[in-house]
Amino acid sequence: MSWQAYVDDHLVATGKVAKAAILGKQGGVWAASAGYNLAPAEQDAITKTFFTQPDAVRANGITLAGFKFMCIQANPDEVIGRKGERGVFVVPTTQAILVAEYENTPAGDANVIVTKLAEYLKSVGY
User: Fold this and answer.
1) Most buried of the four, 26, 27, 90, 123, by CB within 10 Å?
2) DSSP labels for the chain?
């Protein structure tokens, strides 16, 4: 299965995730929703800062595709942001990082979708 299929079929097609991307932990976007463009500085923050400097993420917030979220939680297993009816879950796997934004959906519903995919990818070595 292609990385794009994971974004399209396992995240966005659920209706619980509005847009998503999969990044490699070493950098680079492996797949992303149509029109979901993470700037190079945003990609660097995700891969280099989010899971190693949680205090900085909590202090500075989370900016993705030019939209700034308030950081609600930042730890080595998950970074969570929210602003109004929009939110984001950023979850690392063994080799990748899932970025999933939701809008007008209960946060718990979106979290379940992202977490299940992350657990699956970990189970197969990604």
Assistant:
1) 90
2) --HHHIIIIIIGGGSS-SEEEEEETTSSEEEE-TT----HHHHHHHHHTTTT-HHHHHHH-EEETTEEEEEEEEETTEEEEEETTEEEEEEE-SSEEEEEEEESS-HHHHHHHHHHHHHHHHHTT-
Instruction: Tell me the residue type at 124.
Output: V
pLDDT of 1: 67
CA 93 vs. chain centroid, Å, equals: 11
Over residues 37-75, the pLDDT tens digits come to 999 999 999 999 999 999 999 999 999 999 999 999 999
